[in-house]
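FIELD: query
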Amino acid sequence: MSQIRAQTAAMQVHDQLRHEIVTAQLAPRAPLSEQDLTARFGVSRTPIREALLKLAEEGLVDIYPQHGSFVAPIRLTDVYDAQFVRESLECSAIALAAEKIDAEQSRQLRAVLDRQSAFHKVEDNDHFFDADEEMHATLMAIAGHAQVWRQVQSAKAQMDRVRHLTMRRPLKRNAVLTEHEAIIDRVLNRDAPGAVEALRAHLRGVFQSVQVLVAENEAYFATESDAVPPQRGRAGLRR
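FIELD: result
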């Protein structure tokens, strides 16, 4: 396999596993056997290892020498760090977006919100989440910092796991839509301070969500026992 093909394969494996971990299709502490992944994706071990290392950098996989790789539990410190990164970068960006936005970009933002509302009505959680991502990425692009969104995405992997769990609830999705409406209205009105305030409140909602999730989904979150490698067993995708 050429170097370029290996890099492409590693990226594809990474993206697929990241999606499955973030959406809880792969459960916390599930083993990630290189042999099984090689057979599943039809690639050599090199791109599999590269993908796992990248996922480990994002806090989504724990690699234990002599024991193997496992899906990482959700660590609250990582969630709070991600929230800090998002608030720092996105609040700065949205102030710029409120100053720069033009008529076409205004229509684009409205269209994203309309799509998210439609996905909410049919309880399509995956596409609802995608539209959520698109709105935040669009605001970053309007601010003139589209490439910064990639850094945000890499930093917020653990936060995305929390978001996916909370967005299974209709009431939470409805609250998100209401908050997005408030954010976009302020941007369209070129109210930079108001947009920053609305976005900050929106992003800080994760603190309340985490407390509820820890109580209801304790198994998803890290405990003191996670300092020891999990027992390897057979574990597959959650369907």
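FIELD: remark
The mean pLDDT is 90.
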